[in-house]
Design brief:
Helices cover 78% and strands 0% of the residues. By secondary structure, it is mostly helical. It has one domain. It is globular and about 50 Å long. It comes from Roseicyclus persicicus. This is HupE/UreJ family protein.
């Protein structure tokens, strides 16, 4: 069995720990008494959000510099804009479809090793970020500060992007590249399950 590099070991440990923490928080239902905490856990609660946000970091890592840092910055910035639209009640059609499609499209881009120019990748990621942000904004609990909530969901999203980037370190080997592409396929399947109402 081949030895894993330090980066690969970090990648192999990061995602399971984040997902374990997410599930622990989701099942207790305790401690969500501030806008920040509610916003932080909101993107981590739903697998439709989780797979898309991990995919952004993973695709960025697959594309390499500068995408590895640009895409995970573009997504939360544009997501915050979409969240503001949701808080203001500005309607955007087919929000849930857009969220589900983000998993399908981003997963397929990874699975088929698509190397898009950075501006194309940023536009794709930004477009899907609007749907995710709008959903967060419209679901803002009335009792919480929208500012704390927005900061919380940007931080939670950033951690999911980092998990994707960590997984992207596996692309240092041929077996790792295949694992990353396989992960993209799984992400696309999860997105399709939400798209067709199977999840």
């Amino acid at each position: 069995m081949p030895r894993l590099s330090p980066k690969a070991r970090i990648a192999a440990l990061t995602l399971p720990l984040i997902l374990l923490a997410a599930q622990a928080g989701a099942h207790t239902g305790e401690g969500i008494n501030t806008g920040f905490a509610s916003g932080f856990w909101h993107p981590i609660y739903g697998w439709d959000h989780v797979v898309a946000m991990v995919a952004v970091g993973l695709w960025g890592a697959f594309l390499g510099a500068p995408a590895i840092w640009i895409l995970p910055v573009v997504f939360p910035l544009v997501m915050a804009f979409g969240g503001a639209l949701g808080v203001m009640g500005v309607p955007i059609p087919m929000i849930e479809t857009g969220i589900a499609l983000s998993g399908v499209v981003l997963g397929l881009l990874i699975a088929f090793a698509v190397r898009a120019p950075i501006w194309v990748a940023a536009v794709i990621v930004g477009l899907f970020a609007i749907f995710h942000g709008h959903a967060h904004g419209t679901e803002l609990p009335e009792a919480f500060s929208p500012y704390g909530y927005a900061v919380g969901f940007v931080v939670g999203t950033g951690l999911l992007h980092l998990a994707g980037i960590a997984l992207g370190f596996l692309t240092n080997s041929e077996a790792g590249k295949m694992a990353v592409r396989g992960t993209g396929g799984v992400i696309a399947l999860v997105g399709a399950a939400f798209l067709f109402g199977l999840a």
